[in-house]
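Whiteboard transcription, Tuesday session. T.W. wrote the structure tokens on the left side:
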């Protein structure tokens, strides 16, 4: 059995596979069949208190309502590890350009996309994530990952030239969400009674990665999984998804909760690094993505990482007399462990 720690083993292109496998007589290859999808309980409650909280950035920024909204924000990070962000200030046009250009990229013929294929032992480019063995089950999804920030980390050989506006759309969107994530980290620290700059100082100007996920429709949608259950390794993830097709599910108390993303909202989640920095006060929740029967779904996740020279361990301001719940490790060791856990 072949195995890799970083990067992903090459597997079939799912978009192409879905096109040849779209009728009732077409058998979905065994490696994509996930029996657990049907056997696990999924809670789907429209607009109820059982849904991830909705945080309004305008309210956070307004001195009249800030404190109350900050309590909601912190409780979302503690109980769910997820929330939806409305009035986030990223202009509609920036979001539209981003989504349109990503959709346009995936719409190209396979050969054109393959020009940006991942290289062995790297996650950057077009392909898959976390395929580490020849026998593991596979996700019904293709992915395109880029190192986006800091600007010097970009390898433009992976940045598509078609559509012509792709690079600019990614650059503008990524700058907006980087600012936004810093703003949220300040409120998260403040809401916990820590110095607002405590988290900000660790994330501002630090690496941002972007994963564009393409989930083709599948006539046997209840038998495949778009993205296997996982938690994100980073500090904070901001997720943008196509408005009309939902698919994200978040685990809480052993059950999956379907997220109903609001039109124009961004979905924010705490990653493993932030869980550790907060000494477990914030949760990095397991999540997954399911597939629609006849509609494609596209999502764009931006991962905000903390300074990689720093040790990953609970911040004294978040420990405050509690027991220290996590061992401090170098970022390298932390990431090695994270990837091992996926294998
Ligand atoms: O597509 C989604 O809804 C989830 C994406 C995600 O969790 C990821 O890319 O890490
Ligand atoms: Fe994720």
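and on the right, the sequence the group agreed on:
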């Amino acid at each position: 059995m072949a195995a890799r720690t970083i990067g992903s083993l090459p597997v079939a292109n799912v978009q192409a596979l879905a096109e040849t496998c779209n009728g009732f007589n077409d058998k979905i290859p065994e490696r994509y069949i996930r029996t657990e999808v049907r056997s696990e309980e999924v809670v789907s409650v429209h607009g109820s208190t059982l849904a991830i909280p909705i945080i309004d950035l305008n309210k956070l920024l307004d001195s009249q309502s800030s404190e109350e909204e900050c309590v909601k924000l912190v409780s979302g990070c503690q109980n769910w590890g997820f929330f939806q962000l409305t009035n986030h200030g990223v202009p509609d046009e920036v979001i539209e350009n981003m989504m349109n250009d990503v959709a346009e990229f995936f719409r190209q013929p396979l050969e054109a996309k393959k020009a940006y294929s991942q290289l062995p032992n790297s996650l950057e480019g077009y392909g898959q994530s976390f395929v580490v063995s020849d026998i593991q089950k596979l996700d019904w999804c293709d992915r395109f990952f880029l190192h986006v920030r800091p600007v010097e980390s970009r390898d433009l050989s992976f940045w598509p030239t078609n559509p012509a506006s792709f690079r600019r759309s990614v650059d503008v969107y990524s700058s907006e969400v980087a600012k936004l994530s810093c703003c949220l980290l300040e409120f998260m620290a403040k809401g916990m009674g820590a110095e607002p700059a405590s988290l900000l100082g660790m994330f501002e100007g630090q690496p941002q990665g972007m994963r564009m996920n393409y989930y083709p429709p599948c006539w046997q949608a209840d038998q495949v999984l778009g993205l296997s259950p996982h938690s994100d390794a980073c500090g904070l993830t901001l997720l943008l998804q196509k408005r009309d097709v939902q698919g994200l599910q978040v685990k809480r108390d052993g059950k999956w909760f379907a997220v109903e993303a609001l039109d124009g909202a961004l979905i924010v989640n705490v990653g493993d690094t932030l869980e550790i920095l907060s000494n477990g006060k914030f949760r990095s929740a397991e999540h997954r993505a399911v597939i629609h029967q006849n509609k494609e779904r596209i999502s764009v996740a931006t991962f905000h990482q903390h300074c990689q020279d720093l040790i990953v361990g609970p911040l004294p301001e978040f420990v405050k007399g509690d027991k220290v719940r996590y061992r401090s490790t170098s970022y390298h060791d932390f990431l090695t462990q994270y990837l091992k856990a996926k294998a």
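Someone added at the bottom: Residues 211, 213, 227, 232, 239, 241, 247-248, 287, 289, 299, 301 surround 2-oxoglutaric acid (ligand 1) (CB under 6 Å).
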